[in-house]
Design brief:
Elements (H helix, E strand, L loop, with lengths): L3 E15 L4 E16 L10 E15 L4 E12 L3 H10 L10 E13 L4 E18 L7 E19 L4 E15 L20 E10 L3 E10 L2 E3 L9 E3 L2 E11 L4 E8 L7 E3 L2 E2 L4 E8 L2
Antiparallel strand pairs: 1-2, 2-3, 3-4, 4-5, 5-6, 6-7, 7-8, 8-9, 9-10, 10-13, 11-12, 13-14, 14-17, 15-16
Length: 295
């Protein structure tokens, strides 16, 4: 009988210091707490669960000159199990004497921003995450959720911005990422991905056109995700490649006055047939609209 509840509470404090025209520093401290359990006595598989962690965060920015800025970020990472992760662990875990632990570890980022002129700038950087008790969720029947001793994720990022004029801007983002896992859990059985994480596309590319004036705001974005790998339990260790895809989205907003606006959204404009996870096709073309009134 599935019946569960998760209570999350978070407290954080942060501050930014400007030492002079060149140096800026940011420091943050965040406490997260999760309490989970059953909300019906018939949910016999649900276990009481309580965990929390204090996570410091630090970043530093050095503005070498008017055109160049370097950024360094060092953060503790902590992520509690989500509602579905907690549910599937509670119902199908082989050994429930050991709780599904939160992910925790360290995250490092180093990047540099160069402004060629007032119109064009590029930011290039690298990232590295070293995570203990990585939460792995097998999304295909049987749905298993468990911790992997250690996972490492690293890669490069590129961000570029071109301002054609006061109204028209083009953004380009590219990510190249890699992963490695060690200390495989017994529930990671029949997984053909021995050394790497599933659902880790090597390339991600985003292109966004923005138009802004007093009456209109337009966003047209193109998102590309390269192929991904999965090894469902039911396939006896076979590795399945989920094809890459490109999705186009449009958002148009008409500012009626200073207090109200009307927006139209079209997601997956060309009705692309694609999946982000094996066995779960994404929605086709979608239309939505909203009206906002600001008091």
């Amino acid at each position: 009988y599935p019946a569960q509840k998760l209570d999350r509470s978070d407290i954080y404090i942060d501050d930014k210091w400007t030492f002079d025209k060149r140096w800026q520093a940011y420091f943050g401290l965040r406490y997260d707490h999760l309490k989970a359990g059953k909300d019906d006595e018939r949910a016999v598989n649900m276990s009481d669960y309580s965990t929390g962690s204090l996570s410091p965060k630090f970043s530093l920015a050095l503005k070498s000159d008017a055109k160049n800025t370097t950024y360094l970020s060092i953060n503790k990472v902590w992520r509690a199990p989500s509602m579905p992760e907690f549910y599937w662990w509670a119902n199908y875990a082989r050994n429930k004497t050991k709780y599904l632990k939160p992910e925790q570890g360290m995250s490092y980022e180093l990047s540099t921003l160069h402004r060629f002129d007032q119109r064009y700038q590029v930011k290039v950087g690298g990232f590295y995450q070293d995570l203990s008790d990585y939460i792995n969720f097998r999304h295909y029947n049987p749905f298993l959720c468990y911790n992997i001793d250690n996972a490492k994720i690293w890669g490069l990022e590129l961000e570029s911005q071109i301002k054609f004029d006061a109204k028209n801007t083009l953004l380009l983002n590219y990510t190249n990422q890699h992963s490695k896992k060690t200390g495989v859990h017994p529930d990671d059985r029949q997984n053909g991905l021995i050394n790497e994480l599933d659902y880790m596309p090597r390339h991600k590319l985003g292109l966004t056109y923005m138009y802004d004036d007093k009456l209109w705001n337009v966003r047209y974005n193109i998102n590309y995700v390269s192929s991904q790998k999965e090894s469902p339990v039911a396939t006896n260790g076979s590795v399945i490649r989920i094809g890459g895809y490109t999705v186009h989205n449009l958002a148009v907003t008409r500012n009626l006055n200073k207090n109200s606006s009307l927006s139209l959204f079209i997601d997956n404009i060309f009705d692309k047939d694609y999946s982000e996870q094996y066995g779960y096709p994404m929605l086709g073309r979608q239309f939505s609209a909203n009206y906002i009134f600001r008091f």
